[in-house]
Specification:
The chain is of the alpha/beta class and about 160 residues long. It has a single domain, classed as P-loop containing nucleotide triphosphate hydrolases (Rossmann fold, 3-Layer(aba) Sandwich). Helix content is about 35%, strand content about 20%. Strands 3-2-4-5-1-6 form a 6-stranded parallel beta sheet, with helices on both faces. Helix 2 packs parallel to helix 4. The longest helix has 24 residues. The relative contact order is 0.27.
């Protein structure tokens, strides 16, 4: 059975929480999950703090070094964090190509396109590294039509 690519996006809150719920479901089935966070800063993402206790089934990676969110950084700091997040994308490809997990969550990865950190083609290259036995979840605020074409299921989360 081919595992899906799911996308949770929109300006409402809850995309990351929905991805976390799916991650917990996979872990409860004895499957391994990897979460890579983007654009949240090292000090943010407190909703994932409990995951440290769920290793090795769920592993969380934050490649950013700054405690601040990306938009709060000066130009030099943004350049450094851009490099760190590009390394995270490369790590995502490695995770997919080695079959390290059954679920890969790329939390707020769609924001890399908004910020000009990555291109659609680069994100599609990551998605193309996926095997049939690995599911992927992408989250973020905005979804391009080109990325949408690579999804099996898309959930739009709106603020009220």
């Amino acid at each position: 059975m081919k595992e899906p690519v799911q996308i949770y996006y929109g300006e409402g809150r809850g995309g990351s929480a929905a991805a976390l719920g799916q991650t917990l479901r996979y872990a409860s089935e004895g499957k391994r999950a990897v979460i890579i966070q983007f654009l949240k800063g090292k000090g943010n993402g407190d909703d994932y703090g409990i995951l440290e206790r769920l290793e090795p089934e769920i592993r969380l990676f934050r490649f950013e070094k700054s405690e601040k969110c990306f938009r709060e950084l000066d130009e030099k700091e943004q350049a450094e964090e851009t490099s760190n997040m590009r390394n995270a994308l490369n790590y995502a490809k490695k995770v997919l190509s080695t079959g390290e997990c059954e679920l890969l969550v790329l939390d707020e990865v769609l924001g890399l396109l908004d910020e000009g950190i990555a291109t659609e083609d680069e994100l599609i290259q990551v998605l193309n590294a996926k095997s049939d036995s690995t599911a992927i979840i992408l989250t973020g605020w905005h979804l391009s039509e080109e990325i949408r074409k690579h999804a099996d299921t898309v959930y739009k989360i709106d603020a009220e």
